[in-house]
Design goal:
elongated, Arc Repressor Mutant, subunit A, about 150 residues, three-stranded antiparallel beta sheet, mainly alpha
């Protein structure tokens, strides 16, 4: 039981306890996102949209919406803000002018790099783990998200 995190919570399984511990470990994510977005003078939504754009490959707003798991109309406002700040350029796709693609500008690359650095520097809780434990945890998480083999016990 973890009264420190959720008073009275009694874990029904190891998996539930693992999930609760992971949620507790990343509890600062929202504050981190808000601070990084503010440092870039962006809303958190626009900041995350910029992070989801590959600076080396233009994508359509529809593709961005799929990456963000939202309706394509939802990305219009954040991409408008990114375009207004000179971080992306929206232009017709050369092969199909009905489709607008988003290209990250040089300024956008710099802002995106700052966001990625601030968002994905590991929290102190993870840095305190020994390297072998970090590797095992990483491997287990890769398996959990379907991008790796399940670790051997």
């Amino acid at each position: 039981m973890s009264d420190d995190f959720v008073p009275g919570l009694r874990y029904r399984s190891d998996a539930q306890e693992l999930w609760a511990l992971l949620v507790e470990a990343i509890a600062g994510w929202e504050d981190r996102m808000n601070a990084a977005a503010a440092a870039a003078d962006l809303s958190p939504v626009s900041a995350w949209a910029l992070v989801q754009l590959d600076p080396d490959h233009a994508i359509s707003q529809k593709e961005l919406a799929a990456r963000l798991h939202c309706n394509p109309s939802t990305v219009v406002d954040p991409t408008d803000r990114l375009e207004e700040k000179g971080l992306v350029v929206r232009s017709p796709r050369p092969t199909d002018r009905r489709i607008n693609v988003l290209t990250v500008t040089p300024k956008g690359r710099d802002v995106r790099e700052m966001l990625v650095t601030r968002l994905f520097d590991p929290p102190e809780a993870f840095l305190r783990l020994p390297a072998a434990d970090q590797a095992r945890f990483r491997d287990a998480m890769l398996a959990a998200v379907g991008r790796g083999k399940a670790p051997v016990s």
